Structure formats: C-alpha cells, structure tokens
Amino acid sequence: EIVLTQSPGTLSLFPGERITLSCRASQSVGNSFLAWYQQKPGQAPRLLLFDASRRATGVPDRFSGSGSGTDFTLTISRLEPEDFAVYYCQQYGSSPLTFGGGTKVEVK
Amino acid sequence: EVQLVESGGGLVQPGGSLRLTCAASRIAFNSYAMSWVRQAPGKGLEWVSGISGSGGSTYYADSVKGRFTMSRDKSMNTVHLQMNNLRGEDTAVYYCAKLGVSGHYHDYWGQGTLVTVSS
User: Fold this and answer.
1) Which residues of B touch A35 (CB under 8 A)?
2) I need a labelling partner for A84 at 20 to 30 A (CA). Which of A45, A64, B66, B101 fits?
C-alpha cells in the first residue's frame, strides 16, 4: 500500500498569498496518477486536479499541480477567501487507493 | 450535472448491520466505476470499496474486507454498501463517489450519509 504524507499539517496565510502544498508517496506513483481535492467544513470533497497536473472542469487556473514519482505539489498562485479549506491528495496508480492525511489552509 | 445521493445511514449497535444506497442521476451510470469513501469525525478520507462499471469486479480496503459488500443495480441506477458486523471504528460519514473516465480519481461526490456505531 502506498502511504501519502502531506505537509505541512496546517498553514496560516493571508488572502492573496501564494501557497505550495506537498504530497510525498512512500513509493513511486505509477503514471503520475495523483489527484488533489478540496474540502470545506460540512461539505463533500471536490476534485481539483487529476493526473498530477490536469485541472478538473470548472477549477480556476490559480490552482496548478506538478510532480512525478514520489513527490507532488499543489500550488495556489493567489489565495482567494473561498480557498481556505482542507486539501487532500490521493493516488490511483496502485491498489488500494489511498489518501494523504490532508493539509488545512486557514486564515492568518 | 451529475448528482449522487446517499441514504441509509443511522445509529447501529456494534455487531449490527446497515445497507447504504447511492442513487445517481444525470449520468450514464452503468458506464462508470464507483467508490465508497468514508471520513471518521474530525479525520481524513479513507477509501472503503469500489465496483467496476459492469458490477463484475469489486474491491475492498483490508479494514472492511469480509464484512462489507458493494453491489450495483443497473435498472435502478444505484450502488449499495452492505455493512455487517459493524465496529466502533466504522463510525464515519460515508460518501459515494464516481470514478473518472481516465483513471480512479473521484470526480463527483454525494453529500454523504452518517453511520454511527455505538451501544
């Protein structure tokens, strides 16, 4: 089973800042089959990116992803008020599907 | 837009059973693989089970293997999760999610249904 470690656990930032979140895998994720999700309190997760860098339908272009192998990042170029949430990565390169523990992005 | 609606959650005693249902609309439902993903209170996401578009293949996390069974009813556009021998650690919000066309990422999610296992 691939274990995904997200860091940091919590980030405190101001609106307008640039942010980079990390997702590190315990072994290589095949074909860069990695997705990122955003979850707000009381809501279901929302798909942001898949295949490490492809934006899902309707996702603003301030969200971008990169990486391969064991190291992946999600970047938000300029934090908007609606971006304060918890972000999860998920690998689908091998079974079972696994999620990272999440990074909470909060208002400073 | 795709809509997924879960139902069937509730309070159950340890050792009991529950059957969750996910109803899909506005989707060629039988073309897509589906998952159940759960989230314990205040915790992260955990994949629980998956089923192929045909329903011929099912997959389970080790934590639920032998206790949970996922199935789909093509005529009703639904998927189900039969949960037996429930434990306290199964307490969570259970989400139904559709898998993507090109890979096993979850592109649409339901709103979730809460399962509480407690005496």
Assistant:
1) 105-106
2) B101
